[in-house]
Write a structure and sequence with these properties.
There is one protein chain. By secondary structure, the protein is of the alpha+beta class. It has 17 helices and 42 strands. The strands form 9 sheets. It has an 8-stranded antiparallel β-sheet with strand order 30-31-32-33-42-37-36-35, covered by helices on one side. Strands 1-4-10-6-8-7 form a 6-stranded antiparallel β-sheet, with no helix packed on it. The protein has a 5-stranded antiparallel β-sheet with strand order 2-3-11-5-9, with no helix packed on it. Helix 2 (336-346) crosses helix 8 (501-521), helix 5 packs parallel to helix 7 (476-491) and helix 11 (581-598) runs antiparallel to helix 12 (604-613). The two termini are 49 Å apart.
Length: 925
């Protein structure tokens, strides 16, 4: 982050984004394409302004407030759009190596100009200054010596929005930059993959959409949300209220701050006035209320032709201001007991009431030191979900003891590290972000048993809320797991000599619970793995410490959030919204752990069913070495075969499942099989062979249609990877770019977000062909990638076909990343040879339409940052490896690729199959 936001925007700050004068027309606007959208308005803030040429906008370096906001109208919902623009910069720009040089921010609007708060938009990420955005890297990642670059971005227009305020915002730039030629064009695709996977929509009608929430006695509840109505008016919808007591009986009317409407009961009106669609409901529960049900519905009945009305996103749920973490802590660095005392004070309880919140005590008693084991077991199930998911991923916890009896930590796959006495909570011995996150999670305390409470209390003493010893301790990957650990220790038995630690641990767990409740209630992490982890941890804290007055509220909030988050991440048929394979495994492990933890309680059965369906196709993705392809963001290679085997303990036998490679239409299945291809072969005396490809819609990594190949027991074609240990700088930019993946790059432009789908298969004599179609290269071309796989996988052909207008010049570059162990050389102008020991691999370009435009081999090129090439991700950084680049060019249609064969006989067989009538027809479809 460049620095703190100023308290107020500049005087020329935020303005109405669409209702203003149109910008100057672009120079080529004389004969626009009827499908092309150009900005209809332009607004400037923070010193930004119009450039000297038509359609040009200048953004000053004024730290976030400087921006040019361009308005677009009448866009088609649920349609992919390609955004084209030209970015120009100062040639002396010192911040050129910043990955977040500038921000393209997206604010999606209703027809009346009000912003719509969508949870997620395909192609975009959630950002702080704008609802959604795409970070634009600096000049160092453009061709060396260039002063401008043509950029293409893509996103899917979310329904029911129709307009867009597109902002170009200053961020890291130290000199003004210029944006010009901004236009939007729809990317046509009639295939269902163009609109899957969608977040559930919350349409309202005569039948209420019910939100139930347990209350905190004596505390108000605040709900915030947004209503969209096709007919904005004062009475778009309403929330019906129904309070219940602890026994579940409905409390009689009237209710505070609600009106009683005949036929509708106690109601709160939800208007959808133009420019004011958001609502805030502050509920003051009547005496004796233990829970509330809110039924969101339209005023009209079904026969009254109600307008289309929906909740744009799940309403945010929070307690009233005095019970929020910032208010509870204030500027004080509260320890655990002090935090509990302040919480009791805010709840209006007698001084000392917090003593009755300790596990194993009855109201009015104090904790004598050791909580009842029976009570503890009843209050907290033995297998907290995050701990079980961690065990499924890594196996037994690696913490042990050295010769001196002191703890020795084995974290993030790095070497053993002796824990100093006293512990250093700022430690970073390996300069590793994953290691620090693992360390700050405190998950390694579990095997230490009797020492664990004291170490957890020591962490709490050195990390008062608001002043962590290591800022990474507040990262969701550490925060959620640590909350679960603290709750378990707080609820567990303590030796008599450590009785004084109980309030410290309960207080620390309560602080984490309050923080997690705000994160979960406000959907701060979106519908993501981190969001599910936060809700799971909140549920554990609530059930481990049920005597905390906030625990029932947390429990209810966590259960509802888990159901909604999982439904958004995994479809009923097991299709994932997350493209990265390892993160899918994390979701599968967490889903299985949650289903076991909930033991039949909703939403446990639904979670179990979704994740059981999500296992489809998983075993076939493991290579002969037991590794998953690192498609998407992934950690360095580990024992993923064991991870998968643990996940499949209730499913099919792992070895048997890996042998099965049925012909199937991926659109008809879920799980991994929906958007991956895989094949295995086992030739006697030659070792195992394996192929895997992903065509999951790209999000984060430009790896759609990338593939890996192992043959004769040797890994040949690999992915550069998405190492979690490389999260910044040029290495990170390289790993997420197309240059790190085995894909095609058209006309020098990175592939963008968009749909991709399996478009057909063809069975041949001893081989199979698969065609994957994509819309990753803009609206002007149609792309298909065809794989021809011999049954023994001793030969593979990868062919790309690009079709555009007959007069269009097209050129593409295909990339193949070879394993670091391989020795690779160009053995001729149109041939390369790779070797590992006695094994060899022939790599020969093949052309159906167009002409050869070059064959290049790169190994370990590190300058300039934007041209990084010839590396794969290792345990502690990038490892040099050979990358083979083959180029084709032509006009109208270009079709060709690479033959990959273990010997000349296999190469000739591939050539004959490609020349056959069946394959020629398949390529031409």
């Amino acid at each position: 982050m460049p620095g703190p936001l100023p308290d107020q925007p500049p005087a020329d700050g935020p303005q109405d984004l669409l209702n203003g004068p149109p910008p100057d027309p672009a120079p080529d606007a004389g004969a626009p394409d009827p499908d092309t959208r150009i900005p209809v308005t332009a607004r400037y803030a923070g010193g930004a302004g119009a450039g000297g040429r038509p359609g040009e906008h200048v953004v000053a370096a004024k730290n976030r407030w400087a921006r040019a906001v361009l308005g677009f109208r009448d866009l088609a919902p649920d349609t992919w759009y390609a955004l084209d623009l030209t970015l120009a910069w100062d040639p002396e720009e010192p911040a050129g190596a910043a990955l977040d040089f500038a921000l393209a921010g997206f604010d999606f609007l209703a027809p009346d100009g009000s912003s719509l708060d969508f949870e997620a938009v395909p192609g975009l990420v959630r950002t702080l200054p704008d609802p959604h955005g795409i970070w634009l890297p600096g000049p160092a990642y453009r061709p060396e010596g260039a002063r401008a670059a043509a950029l293409r971005l893509a996103f899917r227009m979310p329904a029911p929005a129709s307009d867009l305020a597109l902002g170009f915002r200053s961020w890291r730039n130290t000199a003004p930059f210029r944006v010009s030629g901004v236009r939007l064009r729809p990317v046509a695709s009639g295939h269902p993959a163009a609109s899957a996977f969608r977040l559930p929509r919350r349409r309202l009608g005569p039948e209420p959409l019910v939100l139930a929430q347990t209350l905190v006695p004596g505390a108000g509840l605040v709900l915030r949300g947004q209503i969209f109505s096709e007919r904005p008016d004062e009475h778009a919808a309403y929330a019906g209220l129904r309070y219940r007591d602890a026994a579940g009986a409905e409390l009689p009317l009237p209710y505070p701050d609600a009106v009683s409407v005949p036929g509708h009961g106690a109601s709160v009106n939800l208007p959808a006035r133009p420019q004011a669609r958001r609502f805030t409901l502050t509920l003051r529960p009547p005496a004796g209320a233990a829970s509330v049900e809110l039924g969101f519905r339209t005023w009209e009945d079904a026969d009254e032709n109600p307008p289309a009305v929906e909740l744009v996103a799940a309403p945010e749920v929070a307690l009233e201001e005095p019970l929020r973490l910032e208010s509870l802590c204030g500027d004080d660095l509260l320890d655990g007991p002090s935090f509990l005392a302040r919480l009791a004070e805010r709840l209006g309880l007698e001084p000392g009431a917090e003593a009755g919140w300790m596990p194993g005590t009855e109201p009015g008693e104090t904790d004598g030191g050791a909580a009842s084991e029976a009570t503890t077991a009843a209050e907290m199930p033995a297998a907290p979900p995050l701990a079980l998911a961690r065990t499924l991923r890594r196996g037994p916890e690696g913490t042990g003891r050295g010769a001196d009896g002191r703890p020795v930590l084995r974290l993030a796959g790095l070497p053993d590290w002796p824990l100093p006495d006293p512990p250093d909570w700022r430690a970073d011995p390996y300069r590793s972000v994953p290691w620090r996150l693992d360390y700050q999670s405190l998950a390694w305390l579990a095997p230490l048993e009797r020492e664990a409470p004291a170490l957890a209390a020591a962490w709490a003493a050195r990390n008062p809320w608001g002043q962590p010893a290591d800022p990474l301790s507040l990262h969701p990957a550490a925060l959620s797991l640590r909350a679960e650990v603290l709750a378990g220790l707080a609820a567990g038995p303590l030796p008599a000599e450590e009785a004084g630690l109980r309030p410290v641990l309960v207080g620390a767990a309560a602080q984490h619970g309050v923080a997690l409740a705000e994160i979960v209630g406000q959907n701060a992490f979106g519908r993501s793995l981190h969001g599910v982890q936060a809700a799971a941890a909140l549920l554990v804290v609530a059930r481990a410490l049920p005597r905390l007055p906030l625990a029932p509220f947390w429990d209810s909030l966590a259960l509802r959030s888990l159901g909604e988050a999982v439904a958004a991440l995994v479809g009923p048929d097991g299709r994932f919204a997350e493209p990265a394979l390892q993160r899918r495994l994390d979701l599968l492990g967490l889903g299985r752990a949650l289903a076991a933890y909930l033991a039949g309680e909703a939403p446990g059965p639904d979670i179990a069913a979704r994740f059981e369906a999500g296992l489809a196709g998983l075993p076939g993705l493991l290579d002969p070495g037991g590794r998953l392809p690192p498609f998407g963001d992934a950690p360095p290679a580990g024992d993923e075969a064991a991870w998968v085997a643990r996940l499949l303990t209730r499913g099919p036998d792992l070895v048997a499942a890996r042998e099965v490679a049925p012909e199937r239409a991926p659109d008809a299945v879920g799980g991994f099989a929906h958007d991956t291809l895989s094949a295995r072969a086992e030739a006697v005396g030659r070792g195992a062979a394996h192929f895997a490809c992903t065509f999951a819609p790209p999000q984060g990594h430009a790896d759609c249609t990338s593939f890996v190949l192992a043959t004769e027991g040797v890994r040949w074609i690999v992915e550069a990877g998405g190492s979690e240990s490389l999260e910044a700088g040029a290495a990170r930019h390289y790993l997420v770019s197309a240059r790190a993946h085995n894909v095609a790059v058209l006309d020098g432009h990175e592939p963008v977000s968009g749909p991709a789908w399996h478009a057909g298969a063809l069975r041949l004599d001893g081989a199979a062909a698969h065609r994957i179609e994509t819309r990753l290269y803009g609206p002007d071309v149609a792309h298909a990638r065809i794989f021809l796989l011999l049954d023994e996988l001793d030969g593979v052909a990868v062919i790309d076909r690009f079709r555009g207008a007959a007069s269009n010049a097209l050129a593409f570059e295909g990339l193949l990343h070879l394993a670091p162990e391989a020795i690779v050389a160009l053995s001729g102008p149109r041939r390369a040879l790779a070797q590992q020991g006695a094994r060899r691999l022939n790599l020969v370009p093949w052309i159906a339409e167009g002409r050869a435009a070059g064959l290049t081999l790169v190994n370990g090129r590190s300058e300039p940052p934007g041209a990084l090439q010839g590396f794969v991700a290792g345990q502690r950084g990038l490892v040099p490896a050979s990358t083979l680049s083959y180029a084709l060019a032509g006009r109208g249609t270009v079709c060709g690729g690479m033959l990959i064969a273990t010997d000349l006989t296999v190469e000739e067989r591939l050539t004959r199959l490609l020349a056959g009538e069946a394959m020629r027809g398949f390529l031409a479809e």
